[in-house]
UniProtKB/TrEMBL annotation:
Belongs to the MAPEG family. Its main location: endoplasmic reticulum. InterPro entries: MAPEG-like_dom_sf, Membr-assoc_MAPEG, MGST1-like. This is Microsomal glutathione S-transferase 1. Homotrimer; The trimer binds only one molecule of glutathione. Pfam families: MAPEG. Conjugation of reduced glutathione to a wide number of exogenous and endogenous hydrophobic electrophiles.
Amino acid sequence: MASISLDNPAVQSYLLYSGILGLKVLGMSLLTGRQRYKKKVFANPEDAARGGKVKFDDPDVERVRRAHLNDLENIPVFWVLGALYVTTGPSAALATNLFRAVAAGRILHTIVYAVKPLPQPARAISFGIPFAISIYMGVKVVQFYFSAL
């Protein structure tokens, strides 16, 4: 097992990009709220009481909510697999570039899906690269620890 000390550059990189992605997930709640206020559509009557309406199917709000759900489906998996991956002793440069690509891809996914929707394959690419990296890290963890048995 590799050093998982905070002095390990791969661990530091993992922590940095995990923090960025944690803030990104929190930011999605603000983005949803912004879209609700912009469109004056809310999920609760008390929120709509000041000049809005209760509506559960606004396409613009739902687009942001789907992007948020996509983050909630993918970022925690990155956190788990990334944490396990650093225990395998990857090169710091490779780990940093993988973590950086995941963070950039997840941020870009939100931009092309919820902020400024672009036609495919923009969303597929920004989703697929971080997804493939998570699979790669998971496979490397399984290989590393399977060979240790």
